[in-house]
Design brief:
CATH class: Alpha Beta
Largest sheet: 7 strands, mixed
Shape: globular
Strand content: 25-35%
Low-confidence stretches: 1-5
Helix content: 25-40%
CATH topology: Rossmann fold
Number of helices: 8
CATH architecture: 3-Layer(aba) Sandwich
Order of helices and strands: HHHHEHEHEEHEEEEHEE
Strand order of the largest sheet: 3-2-1-4-5-10-9
CATH superfamily: Vaccinia Virus protein VP39
């Protein structure tokens, strides 16, 4: 990538992430992500319960470790991922745990409009989805689509790796703050300014910092509310 193009996303490489993730999911990812609910999901469940949020949209659910947790906690979860292999595994897990009635999976690319009418959900949750191979323009579109399908007062809570992460600016630069790191994964690292920019049209309720795994991954957990 030339110097003048360093801030322009490498769309070809970003698009190739779909096939990369399908290969990852076809091999199974228990060692990569674990099977227990993530710590953000546990925190978010308490927030949803305290606010009486019942109908949840989860984006980037993967194999469903957080999806299954939410369903066990009594929430109704509509969960999307763009990997059919991941969703097949999630459906099998839901059936095995007798949770199919409260989990509705759908295959979707978040760069496209969400397949729902306006004001359908109490809250949206995504863990590490928004720091995948998505450009800033695509993220702007996504957060506004989420706002569209949320009810008034609905919450949009997401986690992303941030620019204090030890892997920031390592690997191959793919434009903006996107870097292809070890394993062939492209990560979009978020600055606080990017978080605030993407909160346009929302109330920015909280930006918490946290760490995950032994690297460690340094994350923001962002809570935004659709205005009443």
């Amino acid at each position: 990538m030339s110097t003048e193009d360093k801030d322009n996303p490498d769309h070809c490489c970003l698009d190739n992430q779909h096939s990369h993730w399908e290969k990852v999911f076809s091999k199974g990812c228990a060692n990569l992500f674990g099977t227990d609910a993530s710590e953000p999901a546990k925190k978010v469940a308490k927030i949803f319960r305290s606010e009486g949020k019942q109908k949840i949209l989860e984006l980037g659910g993967g194999f469903g470790r957080d999806t299954l947790f939410f369903a066990k906690e009594g929430f109704d979860v509509t969960v999307g991922d763009y990997s059919e292999k991941a969703l097949d595994s999630l459906k099998a897990g839901a059936k095995e745990m007798d949770l199919s009635d409260t989990i509705t999976p759908f295959c979707h690319d978040v760069r496209k409009p969400l397949p729902f009418e306006d004001g359908q959900f109490d809250a949206c949750y995504s863990h590490m989805l928004m720091c995948m191979a998505l450009t800033t323009a695509e993220l702007e579109f996504l957060v506004q689509e989420v706002k569209r399908v949320l009810k008034k007062g609905g919450l949009n809570i997401y986690t992303v790796r941030n620019t204090t992460d030890t892997q920031y600016k390592t690997g191959i630069h793919r434009g903006e703050d996107l870097y292809e790191i070890e394993g062939g994964f492209i990560v979009h690292f978020f600055s606080r300014e990017k978080v605030e920019h993407l909160a346009e049209g929302y109330e920015l309720v909280d930006v918490a910092t946290m760490e995950e795994t032994a690297l460690p991954r340094r994350l923001y957990m962002v809570t935004m509310r659709k205005p009443e």
